[in-house]
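TODO from last week: model Maltokinase.
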Amino acid sequence: RWFSGKARTVAETQVQAAIPLDYTGGRAFLTLLRVAYADGGAETYVLPLAHAEAGSLAQTALPEHALVAHVGGGTLFDPIYAPDFCAALLDLIAHQKHVAAGDGMLIASTTSAFPELRGPLDQPLAPKVSTAEQSNSSIIFGDRLIMKLFRRLEPGLNPDLEIGAFLTEAGNFANIPPVAGALEYDAGTRMTLALLQGFVPNRGDAWYYTLDTIAATFTGLLAEPNATPPGGAAALLDDSARDLPDAAARLLGNYADSAALLGRRTGEMHLALASGSAPNFAPEPFTPAFQAAVLRSMESRAQQSFDLLRSSVANLPAALQADAQRVLEHEGDVVARLRAALDQPIDAQRTRIHGDYHLGQVLYTGSDFFIIDFEGEPARPLDQRREKGAALQDVAGMLRSLHYAPYAVLFGQAPGVAFDEGQRAALEPWARAWHRWAGAAFLRSYLATVGDAPFLPRTRVALHTLLEAYLLDKAVYELRYELN
């Protein structure tokens, strides 16, 4: 699932480098493959490769999805499913080895946190490949470490490593998996092949925790047909400025505390990211050039989304076509609001941010939240993902995720829960109320945590206007995502 070019025609593949790695089962290669497409462009992927003789124990023990090809009387396979190969990868990092290959060098490194995270080197850590990853592959080592193998590579420092290492070494934000080490390939420009982190025991991500919570809430509400959902103010920022009304507190139940905790952890993350003094992390002021670039990006995304919606209306279910037309009628309003927010001077700082922040990027331990995956939006070039931005972009991403969640439950995405059309109609006002007040609880806690931090606009009006712009931008992005 990590190969992103499935819908494109491959014109050519070329081995850029084959990095040898000996392990108990034989010799493997960390292969860097350049994939060129018929429509232009190319991508580089990491594909570990090893060979097993026909009928050998290694071949018969392989899962089907590890097989690459049958060649030379045996099988070419991806050895990350071989425990000894995984142990060899970990050993590379533990001993900070350098391996020459092609025109470059594989460089293994550790952070100051590695010794404590790894534990005694003579203590074996059983590796297991995680089934949860999509764009990368992850190997869990016992209950101590997790290695993320980046399958698609780009030249430059991966922000997941860069930000994770910064927060680990700074020590001022504990709610991330600490970075223990990395594998990089340097052929003039470094590329991050793998990231080693401390393993955080968890109950899954905050998305599924939230869906399960909402599903139980909605099921209970069906037994109270005369209950009325709590209303809210016109602006979310106004609701966040007051305590939860009793009706909203009853609706959210224990999730009110969860939303507040998530807001606090988000604020702590932003404060930590704004604490750096090195050039790649030191806060910088919003400038007219920065705001103009953000506005151009937002306008471009809006144009693409509305164009796609226009061309898709006829293919939508009849019940949705009228809604689609109403959305299209507001295209000018959306663009006008984006311009109103960013055409005026903004007194705030831009900092490093998460960049792709939503409930799926947060682990839930049962009592706390840990924030993961600082790669940024995968579709954006790596250099753009390393740029400083507005903290409110992350805030808007989480608020949109809290909006998505109750509707995901209504439309059958919560495991083991399904509502019929009549039940969905009865529950939809509750879905609106749930996301409204969960968002208010999150935002109230976030704002209380960051206080008068200079990465937020100075006035409440400017804060409202800029937050609304990022919420609109996220919504039009999601529209295109869903239509595709």
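Done. The chain has a mean pLDDT of 94.
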